[in-house]
Every structure is written in structure tokens, then in C-alpha cells.
Amino acid sequence: MGNVMDKVKSPIQAMRGKKRKREDDNSDTNEEINDLLDRSLATPKRKKLISTAKYIYQALFKEERNSDITVHALGKVWHLHKVYLSQSPYFASMFNGSWREADEDYVHIEIVDPKISIESLFSVFGSLYMDEVVLEPREIVSILATATLFQLDSLIDRCAEVMIETTNAETAVKYYEAACEYGVKSVKQSTFNWLLVNLLSLYYKTGKWLRLISVELMELLVASPDLYVMQTELSLYTLLRYWMYLKLHLGGEELGASDEQLQYFANRQSSVAFLNTPKGRQFEKCFRALRLHNLLNHHVDIRVLKQDNIVSVEWMYEPLFQQWTSMLLIDQSLDKGPKDVDEKLFLDTCIRCGRTLPENEYLKWRWTGFNFGLDLILISDTKTLRVKRHHRTENERLLSLQVKRQFLIRVSLTSLNDLRQIKHQQTTPIQTISLDKNEEAMLIMFDKELTYPLLISVNMLVVSPPRTNSNPSGAIGSPTAGPSSSRQSHRDEEESLGAGGNNTAVDS
Length: 508
Known about the structure:
Elements: H1 2-42, H2 50-62, E1 69-73, E2 76-80, H3 82-85, H4 89-96, E3 106-109, H5 118-127, H6 140-149, H7 153-165, H8 172-182, H9 185-202, H10 207-210, H11 215-223, H12 233-248, H13 259-262, H14 284-288, H15 299-308, H16 317-331, H17 343-349, E4 351-357, E5 363-367, E6 376-380, E7 384-389, E8 405-416, E9 422-427, E10 431-435, E11 440-445, E12 454-461, E13 494-497, E14 503-505
Parallel strand pairs: 1-3
Antiparallel strand pairs: 1-2, 4-12, 5-6, 5-13, 6-7, 7-11, 8-9, 8-10, 8-12, 13-14
């Protein structure tokens, strides 16, 4: 019986024990929660009162309460506060130095920069009372000019960010000129790179934007080895011709060059080259930046140059002489291709050519023209770009018989966004390629980030350049402007080859 009672009591005791255990567990949990709450309440929290900045802006700037300084500029008066204006080094030195304004409550600012407006002054003064600023892209140049006047580096940086983000066909030239004027290097470089990629692929179609390019800027673009020349050097010459016509005939918003405009210079009655006339001399340095030796390798190019009579015939003598010399050296196997050429000499004398690949597809093409017996075909297979030395026996009389030919080449690929800003760019180093007859070589494997349409720019040097060059840009009119091989041609100079090898004229 006693055993039975023990058995009966044991479960009750067990239940009581569990209850006490649960009570102990709950007590521990409550202590942990209390500790957590104490720590949470003891930790300071930093929170921004958004209304504070808005109140300061509204009460002190817009309603001009408790003003201690009056600023007069462009015929308008602002009642402001020295403590806020002193964020600007311009005003800080004025109020804290030996200037008479330090003890006065009135300041008159003489504004001489026409880009500074009342609206930009309002925006810049207002930015001193707020922790953020709203920048309208259409007013960004005026705000940059005003921020530069008052030496507000932080605001200048924000303006630069907006300008880089909003660079497009309409703003590129305006932003570039503003960046030069106010010393914003990042915007200057960004817009210049934008123009290098888009000058020939976009601006030739719209005269109102092309006309905005100054002579100084055009000279820099034409001289650059990084310019995306679509298709060859003659394309650049025809763009210069159209641009020069637009600069001489102001007014109108041309959507593209008309036949009348293209024939304007050829229809002149004077036998004097246009660049030798008083009207033409201002454009001479832009045409001298062309690589004339790359314009003298196709009969259509030469015919266009002669008909237009823009460039003096005397400019062509030395490049033609150099071309002939190079051809004779190759014919005697004395020049098997360039070697020991440094980067500067390569960039100064190389051929510039390019095209647009509209879709991700297999494609072959060549840039036609006299090529010193070297027939090079470019092959794009959607993932790579290769080059082939094309050599067919039926054309051997026109091609180099040397077993191996060497040349230098650099390839740049660019994908653009909707504003035609550079989204992704890939450039190879300068490569030395040596090919047997009908041999291929890999030039570049496409990055995965590249998208279509894809712009391709190619720089090539297939003959040895002259070792003395008095003109560092390798430009036309130079006494030694070079024999770097020209494989370029007329406006529709590019030939596209289908997979079957049939040649068809293409205009990218």
C-alpha cells in the first residue's frame, strides 16, 4: 500500500517541480527582456529633423527674417545673414578681412559674367541655407558659373555630377565650353570623350548641333587618335566640309547636309584653294589636323579633294611622295612592316577607321583603298574580332608577295546608353600582328558588358612611318607627314563580305 501511495505522490510532486521550473524560466526571460529594454533606452539615437532645415530656409532665406546683411546684384536685393554667407570663401574673406564691407551691412556685387542670372543667384544663395540643393540641368551652367564666383567647391562638384549625368547631343558642346571656362576637369574630359565617340556617328546628321563646335574644339577632335572615324578619313573630311559651310552660313536648323551644301565649295569660280582665302584661313588648322596621307589612297578621295578645291594642291606633294617611296620599298621587300615604333609615333601616324555593328551577328568587312599589297579583312563572330590577311592567287599581281607581313593595330569597342554616353568601353593595347598569306589572328574577345549597337574604332599602321616628323600631330601639310599606310576610301568606302565571301557595298 505504501508503494502505491508513493507512486501516486510522485506525479504530483513532479508536476509541482515542473511548475517551479517554468516559473524560474519565465523569470529569466523577463530579466533578459528588461536588460534589453534598459540597454535600448540608454543608447542615444541620432535622428535628423527634416523640418529644421526647411524652417531655416523658409524663415531666414525666403522670408528674410533677422537679416544682418543686404546683398545687391543684377538689380535685385537679398536680405541675408553673414553667418550663412560665410560658408563661401568669397564672403568669408570679405566679412573677416580688412575690406570695408566687414563693418557694413550692405554689399554690392558687380556681376560681369553673362552666364550668371538672377535665378542662379537665388539657387546658390538658397543652397547656403539648406542641406540639399535641387539642380535643374537646363540651368546648370549658370549655377556652375555662380558657384565658381563664390568659390563653393562642394556645389561645383554637385554641378559637375549633374553635367556628366546629362551630357547628350544638345548639351555636350555647351558643357565642354563651360568646363574649360570654369576649370572643371572631370566635365571637360567626360564631354570630350563623348564627342570623340559621337562626332561622326551622330553630329553629321544634325547641323544645329554641329555648328556649335568651335574651331579650337574641332581642331582637337580631328587631331585625336582616339576619334571614332566612321568610316574612314574621307568621312572626317566631308564632315569638316559641312561644318565649315554651317559656320559660314549662320541661321536655320539643318537636319543633314543637302546636295547644294555639299557642292558649295566645288561650285566656286575661284581657282584659289578656299583655305587660302580670307574667309577660309580661320579653318586652316582644322584641315591641317587631318591625316592627308590617308586621303590619298583612293581615286575617289583624290577626285573629291580636287573638285572641292578647299585644300591646296601643294599640301599633297609631300604625302604623295612618301606614299610612293613606301610602295617602292615594299615592292623590293625592303619594308616588311613597321617595327620598333613607339606609342606616340604610332598614334600620330596611324590609319583611323571604324564602323557600327548594329546587331549581334557574324560579319566580315574591309576598308577599301590602296593598301600597299596588304588585303586585311575584319571578322566579327559576336564574341571576338579577328583579322585575316586575304590573299587570292588571281589577285597576286596586286598583292604583296612577301610570305609574312607585319603591321600594328589597336582596337576600341564602345557601347552607348540612350543618351549616347559611354556605357562600356574596351580597348586593346597596340598589338604587333605578323601574318602569312590567308592567315588569321585574334584581335580582341568581347567583354560581356558590351551591348549592341556596338561601335568599333581601329587604328592601324602597315608600313614604316618616317623617322623625322616636324609636325607632332602627323597632320596634313607637314613636310614629312607620313607614309603610314592608308587603306581608306570614299564615303561609301567600306565593303562588307557575307559568309559566302561576296562583296557588297555597305554604309554603316
